[in-house]
Design goal:
The complex is a heterodimer of chains A (525) and B (1011). With 525 residues, chain A is mainly α. Chain A has 22 helices and four strands. Chain A has one domain: Serine Threonine Protein Phosphatase 5, Tetratricopeptide repeat (Alpha Horseshoe). Chain B has 1011 residues and is mainly β. Chain B has two domains: 1-98, Carboxypeptidase-like, regulatory domain (Immunoglobulin-like, Sandwich); 250-654 and 664-801 and 836-873 and 966-1010, Beta Barrel (Maltoporin, Chain A), CATH 2.40.170.20. Classes of the chains: A mainly alpha (525), B mainly beta (1011).
């Protein structure tokens, strides 16, 4: 007993045993930075998770840009049929996805890589930041980029400043990557290019061309200079499908397939039906599945595909579930292992537009246009491209919604141009052909077509049938489209000064009808 | 019904058998007061039985007892006396006056016994019969209203569900304010599982349901940190102190208890069955009346049944005592396939050795629980959504009978439902093909050594191991709702262990220093290690599927399904504590205490060792001054305590996680290496006064609890400079919450005479919280659950549980604004509409005894506060509420509105337009906010003690039969659902109803026999 008392007294005098506290307070099922150093995972292991967040899920992607670009449409009347797709904003989550899951980890990775003196990983992460930000800015406009993480208070960059920063960053990124094309350290972590640094440089350079064309109306001189820089850069451009920049699904199913086949929340759009059907585009076989109920396609039984109008009036979700799904092959993660982010067809269409705009080195518009279509056919493994390119008769179809009575949800096609190139036509007609084909070829990545559509008004897509926009988020006229997404609520609440400043940089109210910087609303030429 | 009849017959048969035997003698006598006058109303009880009587007007009594029985004589204001029945048939005695009767010794923190009158803080005790009387499976529910300062909410999930208990308000910006539960002085593992929210989920129970209510001798509520200080930070939110029964020296007593209760729903939402859907829509918005079936909703529910049998054996001699109990609970719920069963075994013994200087006690509690088919709340995978939404013109019976149909394209049985909608499934499919089970296995074992070192010096050493194993599973059959379940089916599985090791050593010294001064001092050390939620988990989702349909085990999981190792964390806490109570002439007591804690969760901060003190003073006025005779006892007390609370597990330096694609998710939470413990400072002032020989008692407490240096999560927006461009959230010590409140308890014996006694007890509780400081950013909003326009927020200057909802936009005259298309306008952001907490609560508990009958009645009242019903909003949007039918009967909804642009008046709106706008998801929340005020008859019981004399049963010591009823009916209620039922028992989704199970009443009979 005496021993016991003295033991207690010892504890009382000496204090508690705290030497294992740090270990106790560590979650055994989390991986430490120290452990990650094995196989250099401490920087590399984060690229899959950053890239895996680029596209976003249902509410950030499918019910946003994928609907706004009119590639896919939902059969589901979410929230009483009043939601983002009918221009009443319910979901606005892309901002947080990008900042929380791409930008913040990217900066950490950059800090570690800088400490290690690993320039390639530094610039690789910087490139991920640019590719994420150039997507986010077409949502909102001004963003926090150059000031992000510099300890200053919440100041947004104007779009003008954003793009010049993107270009400056791309200069540095491309030069570092180009100087290290023999570096092999990325291969273990790079599901896109298998660690081929030269291909990353090529993608970065192609991204510069994309951004240059984006600015071709609002800042023609800057656009031309940057565009020509991209064309001339020895890093080269993505001109073959083998160089396409794809993002791996990392074993997960192509997300729109989950939305389509598991949740029954997305289908082919009426615009796809109208354009692919009208142009007799054989790529439809690779894009979508035909309907089984032929009564749905009584307006064109030889083209057994039926889409849903974006911004349709919907009653019950069941009504349009029998409409065309995306192609069933997307549903197999063993078949569709990656997702297209930038492909050769886009670059050819960018060059075609650059040629129209007289940029040095862009080549011939006709050739680039046709190469764009050809590489797209090749990408999807579809034949018949020559006939397709020669078709100077077919135009897109009018649309009938067989599940809605009368004229509800129906539209008359507004596209008058055909597929075949017409060298004699004016630039406006040529641009319509280029952007319309670019829109088709872009299928599965709908962000850039949404940009092109706002910038050029092509393709001549149908307006919303149901438009629930009101003063809450801004009014969209019946003959116009949603122009942007508002700044997010937590920013409005927690950074009111920054948002007020950003709104003044936006040059209009923080509403969905306010045009972004490059969306001038002016003539295309 | 068959079972009910059978049960009654068994009971009757049992009672008949009783009548056949009988053989005891009659003991009688006269009881007098100290002056020699007859004393009426003295309780006389055969110890260990319920066989009792009272003295008549002349102080005479007579009772059946056998030789060797102990008769216990008790009377308020006197000392209780125990006398063993000998050969004589007459026992006369004189009761000794006990001016205070507060020499009563009560169990306080750590199991330390103290005289109640010396306490410097509030402590209230509920006795065993109050707990077991109700036969509620979750025993905690039965103390609601019986003490002040306690808020108890029952989970809507039914048997085996958890209970929400908050003492003196919410004190934390980050965690919930669940008190510490303690059995016989030793902390109990209480790892509450997941809770439902707006979108779904099921209550996964807590650590309390493992206890057998029949083992409980009493429950003491230490409401404030002042009382709980010796438990250290664990007691910061108060302590629920459970004392279990133990063996009594003397004759072996066998007690058998059997009860059956039935459970019925009190009310369903008010639904319409007059208007169907148009064109196959899933909403019933036709304006053409029809005559549609309406009984299928009620028919979905059934009468639940709960059978409890328990047996206890207690006995021993001067050296060794033992207590053994076994209890079996078997219940069926109010929904199909919902069952709950529990088996408890406990064995407790105590032995004295070494000339009675050493006492070795041990206690082992085993419990096995199984629950099947416990239903969720919220939108997803909830049978109630489909049940309520079902379009009225369709034939529900077809879907009930054919909840699955053979799908020849897949060659399997597939779900049959009229619509593919994420909010609903065939209710019977969910019940039959998405079965949910939970198994809990629990062992609590402890050993205690108590050594009397010297006359005044005592050492106690205790050790406890508490181990729980939980398996929770739901098998989602192929073709379940495709929003949540893969086409081949999905599997939710979580198996984990909860472990708690506790040891302490306490050296105590009790002495009369001089004639005037007394000292009770103690010095102790404790060590506690908890490891909760250590296990493995698989989560179902539409992407997480099975290779082959309907086979639920690991090797059939698709490769993308992550099998996770889980932990809620390991926490090691060590403490050193000391406490001394210095008494002066039995009238002044000074209590001083202090504790130093070392907590592993503060490792790396340098703040992992922290000290906090407490001081309190009690003045017994009735000892100091000569007070009028009417005042039997009077006391004032004041105390001030600081308690420090460590931060949660793994917050200081979190690491990276591995996701289901094998990628690593970078931690973006800033390391928190300067964390400090939260500080809760509690001041309380109280008065305990008794009048008229203890016929009237009054206890009053005022308290002020200040919680500072709160552990707060702060999201770092991209715009926040502190994000450093790397972090998306950080933790800080900041903020201040103040809870102020009043607790008042009035005890009285309004009537006491020969035949009748009425005891009454009123508990009044009022708590006000204020968020004084929410951190460095005064504009910060902390969301405690925000979805679909409902949100409960913490904002500076606001209160805990402030409710925010979307409202109508109105003009200066209060008219609702409309747009040009005839739709009303609502606010873009949610706005404050009220607070979810009540202004005050009242519990009024009464017990009556008249002859061999006794009755009790508890009325609970909650006054003020708000609740919110998303259910009503959804039912309106779908056109299935009675309200929408009434509107369609009339043809329009009258409104006082105006078109914003033109100023034209709007006086009526088409019902469909109106209800689809105000209802559904994200509707106009203000239309679905209701006053929480309600008064209900919470408990009623009527009991009868059998006259064993007449029955002539020598081997039965006592037998009683009682009728019990709980949650019987509302005397007043504003909301369309029971506002005191919690969807979630954590701090989120407070006051929210979203397809919760309907509230139930239960009633039944209970038979207790002691041998």
């Amino acid at each position: 007993m005496k021993k016991f008392i003295s033991a207690i007294l010892m504890v009382m005098v000496l204090g508690a045993c705290t030497k294992n506290f740090e270990e106790t307070n560590t979650n055994p099922y989390e991986i430490s930075g120290e452990s990650l150093k094995q196989d250099f995972n401490h920087v590399g292991a984060f690229f899959p998770t950053m890239l895996g967040n680029i596209f976003g899920n249902q509410v950030e992607h499918n019910l946003a840009n994928e609907s706004f670009a009119r590639h896919l449409a939902t059969p589901t009347p979410f929230v009483g049929g009043v939601n983002n797709t009918t221009y009443y904003i319910r979901w606005n989550g892309y901002w947080n996805r990008i900042y929380n899951n791409v930008m913040a980890p990217a900066n950490q990775v950059i800090a570690i890589a800088e400490e290690d003196g690993n320039d390639v990983f530094v610039e690789w992460a910087n490139l991920i930041k640019v590719l994420a930000m150039q997507r986010l800015t077409v949502y909102h406009g001004p963003l926090i980029y150059t000031e992000y993480g510099l300890g200053k208070t919440g100041e947004y960059d104007s779009e003008e400043k954003l793009y010049s920063a993107f270009f400056a960053d791309l200069d540095r990124i491309i030069s570092v990557l180009s100087a290290n094309t023999d570096y092999t350290g990325m291969s273990a972590f790079d599901a896109s290019y298998g660690g081929d640094v030269a291909k990353w440089a090529r993608f970065a350079n192609s991204l510069r061309l994309r951004l240059a064309i984006r600015l071709s109306k609002v800042a023609p001189a800057l656009a031309k200079a940057e565009g020509e820089k991209a064309i001339a850069d020895p890093a080269g451009l993505i001109l073959t499908n083998g160089d396409n920049f794809n993002i791996s699904g990392y074993g997960q199913k192509y997300h729109p397939a989950v939305i389509c086949f598991e949740w029954g929340d997305t289908r082919m759009s009426a615009s796809m039906e109208s354009i692919l059907g009208g142009y007799k585009d054989p790529r439809v076989e690779a894009f979508f599945d035909p309907v089984t109920d032929m009564s749905l396609v009584s307006d064109h039984p030889d083209f057994p595909y039926k889409g849903i109008r974006n911004g349709a009036t919907l009653v019950a979700k069941d009504d349009r579930l029998p409409y065309s799904t995306i192609d069933i092959s997307f549903n197999d993660p063993g078949v569709v292992t990656q997702r297209k982010f930038m492909s050769a067809d886009e670059v050819y269409f960018l060059l075609a537009e650059a040629a129209l705009r007289g940029w040095t080195g862009a080549g011939d518009a006709a050739t680039n246009y046709e190469m764009g279509v050809r590489t797209s056919f090749e990408l999807w493994g579809i034949g018949g491209v020559d006939d397709y390119l020669a078709d100077n008769v077919s135009i897109p179809l009018d649309y009938d919604d067989p599940k809605a009575s009368g004229d509800v949800n129906d539209f008359v096609n507004r596209i008058t141009s055909t597929v075949a190139w017409d060298e004699a036509a004016d630039n406006e007609t040529k641009l319509e052909k280029i952007i319309t084909q670019k829109w088709i070829a872009a299928y599965t990545d709908s962000m850039e077509p949404w940009v092109d559509h706002r910038r050029t008004d092509y393709p001549k897509l149908p307006f919303n049938y149901q438009n629930d926009s009101n003063s809450d988020w801004g009014v969209i006229p019946a003959d116009d489209f949603l122009r942007r997404m508002p700044f997010i609520t937590s920013e409005r609440e927690n950074n009111p000064t920054g948002v007020a400043d950003a709104t003044s940089k936006l040059g209009g109210p923080d509403e969905i009808g306010t045009r972004l910087w490059w969306d001038t609303g002016g003539p295309n030429f | 019904m068959k079972r009910k009849v059978h049960y009654f017959l068994t009971c009757l048969a049992f009672l008949c058998i009783q009548g056949i035997f009988a053989q005891t003698k009659t003991v009688s006598g006269t009881v007098t007061d100290s002056d020699g006058g007859p004393l009426p109303g003295v309780n006389v009880l055969v110890q260990g039985t319920t066989n009792g009587t009272q003295t008549d007007f002349d102080g005479n009594y007579s009772i059946e007892a056998s030789e060797g029985d102990v008769l216990s004589f008790s009377y308020l204001g006197t000392k209780t006396q125990n006398i063993t029945v000998g050969a004589s048939n007459t026992i006369n005695l004189s009761m000794e006056e006990d001016a205070s009767q507060l020499d009563e010794v009560v169990v306080t923190a750590l199991g330390i016994k103290r005289q109640e009158k010396t306490l410097t803080y509030a402590q209230q005790t509920v006795d065993a019969d109050e707990i077991t009387k109700t036969r509620d499976i979750n025993f905690l529910n039965s103390i609601n209203g019986k003490t002040a300062g306690v808020e108890i909410k029952k989970s809507s999930s039914g048997a085996g569900g958890s209970t929400k208990i908050v003492l003196r308000g919410n004190k934390s910006l980050s965690g919930d304010s669940t008190p510490l539960f303690v059995i016989d002085g030793i902390p109990l593992a209480n790892n509450r599982g997941g809770q439902p929210g707006m979108w779904g989920g099921t209550d996964s129970g807590d650590g309390l349901s493992a206890l057998n209510p029949d083992d409980i001798a009493s429950i003491s509520i230490l409401r404030g940190a002042n009382a709980a200080m010796l438990y250290g930070s664990a007691g910061a939110n108060g302590v629920v102190l459970i004392t279990t029964k133990q063996g009594q020296a003397g004759k072996t007593t066998v007690s058998f208890n059997t009860g059956i209760t039935f459970e019925d729903i009190i009310e369903l939402p008010d639904l319409q069955f007059k208007y169907g859907a148009i064109g196959g829509a899933k909403e019933s918005w036709s304006t053409t009346p029809g005559n549609y079936a309406s009984n299928y909703v009620e028919d979905f529910f059934q009468t639940g049944q709960n059978v409890i049998n328990s047996l206890s054996i207690s006995g021993g001699n001067d050296r060794t005592t033992a207590y053994f109990s076994y209890s079996n609970t078997s219940a069926t719920g109010i929904t199909p396939n919902n069952t709950y069963s529990r088996n408890n075994i406990s064995l407790k013994q105590s032995t004295k050795l070494l000339n009675d200087k050493l006492t070795i006690s041990s206690n082992v509690i085993l419990s096995l629980e199984n629950s099947e088919g416990r239903l969720p709340s919220g939108y997803y995978l909830n049978p109630l959504t489909g049940l309520y939404f079902f379009p009225r013109e369709r034939d529900f019976n077809d879907y009930r009978v054919n909840y699955e149909r053979f799908d020849s394209t897949r060659n399997l049985w597939a779900q049959y439902w009229f619509v593919n909608d994420h909010h609903q499934s065939n209710p019977y499919w969910i019940i039959e093909r998405q079965p949910r089970t939970q198994d809990n296995r629990r062992v609590i074992a402890n050993l205690s050594l108590n050594y009397q070192i010297m006359d005044k010096l005592n050492l106690q050493v205790r050790g406890n191991y508490d181990y729980g194993n939980v398996i929770r599973e739901q098998q989602h059959g192929a073709t379940s709702n495709s929003t949540n379940v893969h086409p081949n089916g999905s599997w939710d599985y979580h198996k984990y262990d909860d472990r708690l090791v506790y040891t302490d050593a306490i050296l105590s010294y009790d002495s009369n220093i001089s004639n005037d001064f007394t000292l009770n001092a103690l010095l102790g050390a404790s060590y506690q290690k908890t490891n909760y939620g250590e296990g493995v988990r698989v989560t179902a989702s539409s992407a997480n599927g099975l290779f082959y349909p309907n086979e639920f085990y690991f090797q059939n999981l698709m490769t993308n399904v992550q099998v996770e190792s889980t932990t809620n964390g390991e926490i090691n806490k060590q403490g050193l504590f000391a406490n001394a109570t210095l008494g002066f002439k039995e009238m002044l007591f000074l209590d001083v205490g202090g504790r130093n804690d070392w907590a592993s969760t503060l490792a790396l901060t340098g703040n992992d060792s922290y000290f906090y003190p407490s001081v309190g003073l009690t003045a017994i006025v009735s000892e100091m001054f000569n007070l009028p005779e009417a005042i039997t006892f009077g006391k004032f007390r004041i105390s001030n305590t600081k308690v420090a609370n460590e931060v949660p597990f793994n917050r200081i330096n979190p690491q990276n996680t591995i996701n289901n694609s094998g990628g690593v998710v970078r931690n973006t939470t800033k390391p928190f290496t300067d964390a400090k413990p939260e500080i809760i400072t509690s001041t309380e002032f109280g008065a305990d006064w008794r009048f008229f020989g203890n016929r009237l008692g009054l206890e009053f407490t005022w308290y002020n609890i200040k919680s500072e240096d709160q552990f707060v999560t702060v999201p770092l927006d991209a715009s926040d400079p502190e994000s450093e461009g790397r972090y998306t959230q950080k933790y800080i010590n900041a903020g201040e919450i103040v809870n102020k409140g009043i607790e008042l308890t009035v005890n009285g014996v309004p009537v006491r005479n020969d035949n009748f006694e009425w005891n009454t007890n009123i508990n009044y509780t009022r708590n006000r919280s204020e968020i004084v400081d929410i951190g460095p950013d005064d504009e910060r909003i902390i969301n405690l659950g925000s979805s679909e326009g409902y949100s409960s927020r913490l904002v500076e200057g606001g209160r805990f549980n402030d409710l925010y909802v979307l409202k109508f936009r109105r003009d200066d005259q209060g008219r609702i604004l409309f747009d040009d298309t005839g739709k009303p306008l609502r606010t873009t952001e949610s706005e404050l509409i009220g607070n979810l907490d009540p202004d005050f609560t009242l519990g009024w508990n009464n017990s009556f005894s008249f002859g061999r009958f006794n009755a009790s009645m508890l009325i609970n009242g909650v006054f003020g506060g708000k609740v919110f019903s998303q259910t009503e909003s959804m039912l309106d949007g779908a056109g299935v509420s009675q309200r929408t039918a009434d509107a369609r009967d009339v043809g329009s909804v009258p409104v006082n509105g105006v078109v914003e642009s033109s100023g034209a008046a709007v006086t009526s709106v088409d019902p469909e337009t109106w209800f689809r706008f105000i209802g559904d998801r994200n509707g106009v929340g203000e239309m679905y906010v209701y006053d929480r005020t309600n008064i209900k008859l919470s408990q009623f019981s009527l009991g009868y003690d059998f006259n064993l004399e007449k029955l002539n049963l020598p081997w039965v010591k006592a037998a009683s039969l009682s009728f019990v009823g709980n949650n019987l009916f509302f005397l007043k209620k504003e909301a369309p659902f029971d506002p005191e039922i919690a969807m979630s028992t954590n701090r989120n989704a407070v006051g929210l109803d979203n397809f919760n199970l309907p509230s139930t009443r239960n009633y039944g009979i209970n038979l207790q026999v002691t041998f």
